[in-house]
Amino acid sequence: MKLRSDQSGIRGLPMPLWLQGGAEALQAVLISAVAALVPIAAVWLTGGFGSLQPADAIRLGGQAWLLVHGVPLYLSEAAPASDGGAAPSAPTVLSLIPLGFALLPFLLSWRSGRRLARASYAETLWQGLLGAAALYALAGFATAFVCSTNAVSANVALAASVPLIPVGFGLIVGARREAGSWSRLIGVDAVDWIARTGQYSRWAGSYLWAVVRAGFVAAVAAFGLASALLALDLAIRWANVVTVYEALGAGGVGGGALTVAQLGYVPNLAVWSLGWSSGAGVILGAGSKASALSTAVGPLPPIPVLAALPTSSASVAAAAVVLPVLAGVLGGWWFQRAGEDHFDEWISIKVPARWFSASVSALVLGALVGAVAGAFAAVAAFLSGGSAGIGRYSAVGPNPLSMLVWVGIEVAIGTIVGYALAPWLERGQLARTNAESVNA
Fold this sequence. Notes:
The protein is 68% helix and 6% strand. It is built from 16 helices and 11 strands. It has helices spanning 17-45, 54-68, 99-118, 125-147, 156-161, 164-179, 182-186, 190-195, 199-236, 238-248, 251-264, 266-278, 314-338, 342-350, 354-384, 400-439, and strands at residues 2-3, 13-14, 73-75, 78-80, 86-88, 92-94, 152-153, 282-284, 289-290, 295-296, 396-397. Strands 10-9-8-11 form a 4-stranded antiparallel sheet. Strands 6-3-7 form a 3-stranded antiparallel sheet. Strand 4 (78-80) and strand 5 form a beta hairpin. Helix 9 runs antiparallel to helix 13. The longest helix is centred in the C-terminal third of the chain and has 40 residues, at 400-439. It comes from Sinomonas humi.
């Protein structure tokens, strides 16, 4: 990227990489800010916020921008004082991040990372990334400072640092995507470094890397099946959702804004659906928990999508718990196809009895893949839950530790099954391929 007036060949001043990084970050900040302000402006223009002043509506948009980037908001309400006045009560925290909207700053940063990698060498890329991170931190700090009020406030230190997590991740992933490899990105040849290690180290590394990828495949499959379960449940109970919409009477613009807000939480609901189906459960406020095995839920806020909360039954529970197991079957099958089962090869050499070596390798693989998939599910549970900042809804979402245990165990069982069935499935596919080639 050059500071020049045209492409006629006249030399221009090269833009410093740190300045280009700041310019890229500024674009991401402005686009994400507009996306946060548009629905709020639509509701405000139609009188949905009553007598809210324009400056207050803009502050509300800034607070929404901070929440989208993962910054917790502190809500305070006036409580009656002993002298009859109003005294500030202890603030509650709003930390329930709409993961669907959080994808926007990530994707914008991903684009910026690609452009910065295209404009720099491996040894100078850090300058552009540092400039982008610095401007984004400054934007977060300024937004928290300007948009904080007595009722809703944000910690300026968290506002300057927390947005750098999704933004920094997007910058690095985008730069890696443009560079094509980590060696080109950071200037270190990983292949040459691995080639200098011993054979056993390379085998162990290949095995563990294949385990991580199999766990990732199983986790993605589990989330995909949970999302399909969520869509099916919404289709079955759509009448309940419509009833809540009608009871709210929010009008066209208000209903549209409410729908947009719920769409932002669709990834959260997908993770909650996995928590429900696995048996880990979903906490819906103090004393309320829903899962496929048992449901004990108190009064819920009038949010339409919550009207689709399924009730537990024996047949539904059995079908739902099978979903993470099926995801584990896919992970075990993928691992077998990867051809990196060096632990099984090693233990087969040490112990000639095949029944013993095959059983041990399957159990070890199931435990490792289950642990990786459970760890992914626990991270997703941590990101999808939080505090809704309203009364007893200070804890909402799946418990990360429960997700780790339940999803890990179920995926481990499925991995063992998939690992055992994979040779038979591959043999059948190979036989069909040979038959088709003979017929051809």
